[in-house]
Amino acid sequence: MAGVAAVQSVVLLLISAMLTNKVSTKIIDDRFLSDVNLEHYYVIEENALSNANVLLRDDYFGADEEELEEDHEKHTPNLTSFISVINEAKAVHRLAGPHLESFLAHPVNVYHLFRRLDSGWREGLQLLLQSKPCRKWNLPMIVGRIRYLIDNLPGREESGRVVDYIAKLQNIYGIPVKDIVRGRIGGVQALKPLTVEEQFEIVKVLHDKDDMRTALVWLQQIYEHMSGLTLEQKSSLDFKQTDILNLMSSAYYAIKHVSKALETTEQVLALDPNNGIAASNLIFFKNKLAIEKEKNETGLNNAELNTVSVRKQLPKYERLCGRKRQKATRKRCRLVRIGLIFYKVEPLHYKPPIVIFHDIIRSKTADVLKSYAHDTQTEQAWISEETFSPPELGVVLNLQEMTTSSMKNETISLKKHLLSLSSLAEGEPEAWDQIQVINVGLEGMHLREHRRNLRLNPPEKQGKYRKEAGAYYIFLNDVKIGGEAVFVDENIVVHPEKGSVLFYYHSKTSLHSFCPVIGSSLWVAVQPVRYKLRNYCVDDDEWL
Fold this sequence. Notes:
The chain is an alpha+beta fold. It has 20 helices and 17 strands. Strands 3, 4, 5, 6, 7, 8, 10, 14 and 17 form a 9-stranded antiparallel sheet that branches. It has a 4-stranded antiparallel sheet with strand order 9-15-12-13. A hairpin with a 2-residue loop joins strand 1 (184-185) and strand 2 (188-189). The longest helix is centred in the first third of the chain and has 22 residues, at 107-128. Residues 1-25 form the signal peptide. Keywords: Dioxygenase, Iron, Metal-binding, Oxidoreductase, Signal, TPR repeat, Vitamin C.
C-alpha cells in the first residue's frame, strides 16, 4: 500500500508540474474559430465550474482563528458577482451540452462565452485562490489547476477577434445590427440576446480598431435603444446617451463627415448644455467646416449609413464573399462517362482551368471522414483532461494508422474516385501527396497562409520544361451561409456542396480563400497532385 501511495504522489506531482508549466495553448492564425479551438474554450469554462463547485463555500472564505476581524476584511471577497457568473455558466452549459456544435457555431453565443471567460471567470478564479484550501492546506494540484486555467483564459485580443468576426458577418452578408442584437443570425437563435452594455463593449472594440463605419451602425442602434428606456433604466447604465452621441460625432469626423459630426454634437448640447466635450467639439467642427468648405463632405445621411455603404469599403475578397448567392442551375454541366460511371463536370473557368465535379462521394463517406478528422484533432489537442495544445492543421488520411475497417473502406473509396477524376484532367499524376482533412473555422481561411503545411507549393520550373501542381478539394459537409471558395483574380465564387469536388492548378493561379461561415464550420479534404514534365507548344493548352 505504501508503494501505491508513493506512485500516486509522484503522478500527482508530475501532473501538477505539467499544469503549472507554460504550455503553448494559443491558436493565433485563421483557425482561431475552428471547432476544436472553440471546444477548448468551452471546456475551460467547464473545468472552471468544477473547481468553483468544490471551492466556493462560505466557510472556505471565513476568518482564520488567529486572524483579527479587520485583517480578515482586507482579503474577504464579495462573492455575489462571481456567483451570478457561475449560475449563468451552469444554465448555458445545461442548455448547450446536447447541442454543442450548433451552440458554438453561433457568433453571439461565442461572444458571450469569451466575455464570461475574460471578465467574470478571470476575477472569479483569482478569488478561488484566496480560499482556505488554496492558501492554507498545501494543495499544489488544485492551485496549479486554477493557475493553469487563469493563464489560458482568453483576453482582450481573443475577445477582439470574436468582435471582428461578428463585424465581418454584418458587413459581408448584410446582416442588420438589430438581428445580431436579438441573437438571430442565419435563422438560428442564440441562447440570449446582447444587452445594451455588451453592445457598448462591442463599439469600444470597433472604435479601438478604427472600424468607424461599423461602429457608427452599432452606436445608432444603442442610441435608438436608449431612447426607449425609462429614466431609472438609463441611470443603471455606466454611460449616457450623450456619451453615445459624442462617440458618434468622433466616428463621423474620422470618416470625414464633418457636417454629420457637427449635427450630432449639437444634439449632445441640446440634451446637456454643460457638456464640456461637446462644447469643445462644436467650435472645432465649425472651424473645420469653414476652413475646408466641406470639401470632404459626401452628403451622407442617416438613412444611407447602412451595411451597403460599409461594404463598398471592403477588400475584394470580402465583397466577393458577399455576392448574392444564386441557386446552381448546372446549365454548363457535362456528363462524362468513365467506365460504367457518369460524372457531372462543370467548368467554371478555362484559362486557367477551374472545375467543379458534382456529387462525387457518398454522404456516408463524407460523414465518416469528417468525424474521423474531428476526433483525431481532438485527441491531438488534449494532452490530458485539462491540458490543451494546438493540433496540426490537417489530419492525414493514412490507412496504416486507421483502426476501423469502415474508415479504411471510405478512404479507399475516395481515392478511387479521385483517380477516376484525374483521367479527366491530364492523365494520372506523377505524384499523389497525402490527403489531409482540414477544418475551415468560422472566420474563413486563406490557403496561401498554409501552403507549406498542405503541400500546395508551386513546382519549380526547369528551363523550357515545367511541372504542373494542382489539388482536389472535397467538401465534406454543407454550411448554412458562407464557406465559399473565392478566386479573387478570376472573380469566381464556388459555394461548397457536400460530396462535390473542386479542382484547379495552383501552379497556374493563386490559391483560393474560404469565406467566413454562419451556422457551422466547413470540413474539406485536400488532395495535392503533381504532373510530369511537360513541353507545351502553347502555354495555355486546354483539357476542358
